[in-house]
Specification:
Blueprint: H1 2-7, E1 17-21, H2 26-39, E2 44-47, E3 59-61, E4 64-65, H3 68-83, H4 95-109, E5 114-118, E6 136-139, H5 147-150, H6 154-161, E7 170-173, H7 179-188
Parallel strand pairs: 1-5, 1-6, 2-5, 6-7
Antiparallel strand pairs: 2-3, 3-4
Length: 191
């Protein structure tokens, strides 16, 4: 992901974010945050996954979905950059990484004041985690999910999702988190 973003000029580094990870409620939380920010006068990008009805729902600015033309143009640009990469054996750009790269470019072109960014799977190794420290890292409720990828215990999964917490960002966590999850988040914050 870092190689692809570098090939595209690192558009993600020129934007501000609210980064959202967790097991349940990420999409709803992102939508509510984006609505609040838009009503407060900000130009807001919203990146969610998966879409409910139409693919374009994943990338929106101030409630308007990316157009067919912009999606095609930025996809072609991203494809050219991805094809030119010399990745290590076994590495490839997956669909989520590709779409995330398209979204970053679109949000920069649209001059978003802030982007509400939903992780796809986990946090630490998620394609969205290529960003610098977000303004706010939001952790929705965490429970056992995607155990084959994220870990076999609540603690391991919480550690992966807490990977979006970075030096200089504020952290907001859902109420009612399991004691193990709270302990992991408290550990990450001072670091």
């Amino acid at each position: 992901m870092r190689a692809l973003m570098k090939a595209l000029g690192d558009p993600q580094d020129q934007l501000r974010y609210v980064h959202v990870a967790g097991t349940n409620g990420k999409g709803s939380t992102c939508t509510m945050i984006a609505s609040i920010l838009r009503e407060s006068g900000y130009r807001v990008g919203l990146y969610t996954s998966p879409y409910l009805v139409k693919f374009h729902e994943r990338i929106a600015v101030n409630g308007e979905l990316i157009s067919d033309g912009d999606l095609l143009r930025l996809s072609q640009h991203t494809e050219a950059a991805a094809d030119a990469l010399a990745l290590p054996p076994g590495e490839h750009i997956g669909e989520f990484e590709f779409v995330t790269a398209v979204a970053f470019q679109y949000f920069l072109e649209q001059q978003c004041d802030i982007v509400v960014l939903e992780t796809g799977l986990g946090g630490s190794f998620d394609a969205t985690n290529v960003i610098r420290a977000p303004e706010v890292a939001v952790i929705t409720s965490i429970s056992l999910d995607h155990m084959a990828v994220l870990g076999n215990s609540l603690e391991e999964i919480a550690r992966t999702k807490a990977g979006i917490i970075k030096q200089g960002s504020r952290v907001v966590s859902a109420c009612g988190q399991d004691v193990v999850v709270k302990a992991v988040l408290r550990e990450y914050c001072p670091e």
